[in-house]
C-alpha cells in the first residue's frame, strides 16, 4: 500500500489569525501494516481564542495516535475499531472539559469543530463534531462521509463551549484506490463537489506535490468567490 499526503492551510484574505489546526500521520506498524490518520479542527471564529481550542484538540489527537493507538495493535480488526470508538468517545469528553476549563479560568468562551479519520488496511473509522467535513473520492465519484452538525451557519455542537458533544462516528471500507479530504468550512463552502473531485481524485494525485498544487488551486478558486474564512484541507491518497 502506498500513501501520498499533503496539508494546505491559509489565514485567508479577511481574517487576522488562522484558527484552523490540522494533522496527518502515516506510520508502519508490524501487525496492522501501514496506517494513516488525518484531523482537521476549525476554532470557532465568533469566540475568543478559537486557535487555542483547535490546537489543543489536534495535539490531543496526536498524543492519542502515538500513545493509545500503539497499545491496540494486537487487537483483531473488529475489536480494534471497537476499541478506537470507545477511546475516541472518552477522549472527546476529556478535550471538551480541558477547553472549557481553559476558558473558565480566563473568562472567555472558545470551541472547535473536529473531523478525524483513521485508516487501517482497507477499513476506516471517522469522528465528526461540527461542520468540518471529510470527503471520500474514488476514481469515479466523490462522497461526503460526514454530516454537518449545523443549521445555517450556526453549529449545533462543538468541542469546548457546551456540554460534552455526542460525536458522529462512522465506519467503512475502501473498495479501491481512494483520496480522503478533510477540510474546514472555509474550503468547502464556495466549492462544488465536482470541482473537488476533478482536482483530487486518485488519478490526479500522482505525487504529494501534485496534491498540494491542486489544493492551492482550489483555495484560489474559493478566494475568487469571496470566501472570507480561514481555509484548510488535509488530503490522503491511498493506493491499495
UniProtKB/TrEMBL annotation:
InterPro entries named among the record's database cross-references: PP2C (IPR015655), PPM-type-like_dom_sf (IPR036457), PPM-type_phosphatase-like_dom (IPR001932)
One Pfam short name: PP2C_2
Gene Ontology MF terms in the entry: protein serine/threonine phosphatase activity
The organism's place on the tree of life at top rank: Bacteria
UniProt xrefs under PROSITE patterns: PPM_2
Domain PPM-type phosphatase: 4-238
SUPFAM superfamilies named in the record: PP2C-like
Name by which UniProt lists this protein: Serine/threonine protein phosphatase
Source species: Butyrivibrio hungatei
Amino acid at each position: 500500500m502506498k500513501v501520498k499526503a499533503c496539508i494546505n492551510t491559509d489565514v485567508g484574505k479577511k481574517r487576522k489569525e488562522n484558527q484552523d489546526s490540522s494533522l496527518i500521520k502515516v506510520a508502519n506498524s508490524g501487525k496492522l501494516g501501514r496506517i494513516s490518520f488525518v484531523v482537521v479542527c476549525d476554532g470557532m471564529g465568533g469566540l475568543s481564542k478559537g486557535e487555542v481550542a483547535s490546537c489543543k484538540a489536534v495535539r490531543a489527537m496526536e498524543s492519542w495516535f502515538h500513545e493509545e493507538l500503539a497499545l491496540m495493535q494486537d487487537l483483531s480488526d473488529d475489536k480494534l475499531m471497537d476499541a478506537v470508538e470507545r477511546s475516541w468517545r472518552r477522549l472527546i469528553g476529556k478535550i471538551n472539559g480541558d477547553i472549557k476549563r481553559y476558558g473558565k479560568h480566563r473568562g472567555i468562551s472558545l470551541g472547535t469543530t473536529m473531523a478525524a479519520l483513521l485508516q487501517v488496511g482497507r477499513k476506516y473509522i471517522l469522528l465528526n463534531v461540527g461542520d468540518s467535513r471529510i470527503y471520500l473520492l474514488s476514481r469515479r465519484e466523490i462522497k461526503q462521509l460526514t454530516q454537518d452538525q449545523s443549521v445555517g451557519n450556526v453549529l449545533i455542537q462543538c468541542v469546548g463551549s457546551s456540554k460534552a458533544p455526542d460525536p458522529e462516528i462512522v465506519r467503512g471500507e475502501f473498495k479501491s484506490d481512494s483520496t480522503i479530504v478533510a477540510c474546514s468550512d472555509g474550503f468547502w463552502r464556495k466549492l462544488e463537489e465536482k470541482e473537488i473531485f476533478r482536482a483530487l481524485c486518485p488519478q490526479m494525485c500522482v505525487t504529494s506535490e501534485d496534491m498540494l498544487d491542486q489544493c492551492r488551486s482550489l483555495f484560489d478558486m474559493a478566494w475568487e468567490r469571496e470566501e472570507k474564512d480561514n481555509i484548510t484541507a488535509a488530503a490522503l491518497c491511498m493506493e491499495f
